[in-house]
Specification:
Layout: E1 2-5, E2 11-14, H1 16-25, E3 29-34, E4 41-45, H2 47-64, E5 70-75, H3 81-96, E6 100-106, H4 115-128, E7 133-142, E8 145-152
């Protein structure tokens, strides 16, 4: 048994053989719309036209969706205040335009002994941007890098 919606919009609960026969009478196709319903819902439509409309709806949804990019801001453990402020302003503009920001501190060579400075730098970065962002991933070590990810706040 299936629920059939004919071209006129009327609903009928019939056996699948009868539904196929009705589709042939209308010179159209029987398309299963809701397979998980009880009974399954089928519709008598022109399949080519139905597929075209589904593709059109999909394109419209993709057009309306906004893609979020991940922008990166790189620091070193001894980054100066002017450079820090400059990069923080850039990160603020990235966040205000709706992108995520990944900030990381690169430790090269013997810089690895300054992990506390890297943590303090990222904490200051997060504190400066807390009015426009929220923490997606707190600061953590990944190999010779300390990274954090911020997402735009929905205020």
């Amino acid at each position: 048994m299936v629920r059939v919606v004919d071209p006129g919009g009327e609903h009928h609960v019939v056996y699948i053989d009868e539904a196929l026969e009705r589709a042939r009478e209308h010179r159209m196709d029987l398309v299963e719309i809701a397979p998980s319903a009880n009974p399954p819902v089928c519709k008598i439509v022109d399949y080519g036209k139905y597929r075209y409309e589904q593709q059109k709806k999909g394109k419209e949804q993709r057009k309306k969706s906004q893609t979020i990019q991940l922008k990166e801001v790189r620091f070193r453990p001894h980054t100066d205040t002017h450079d820090f402020d400059f990069k923080t302003r850039h990160a603020r503009s990235f966040l205000q335009s709706g992108n995520k920001v990944k900030a990381w501190v690169q430790f090269r060579g013997r810089d690895i002994i300054y992990k506390e400075q890297g943590m303090a730098l990222l904490q200051r970065f997060i504190a400066d941007l807390q009015d426009v962002a929220r923490i997606d991933q707190p600061p953590r070590m990944e190999g010779r890098r300390m990274t954090t990810i911020l997402t735009p706040d929905k205020k």
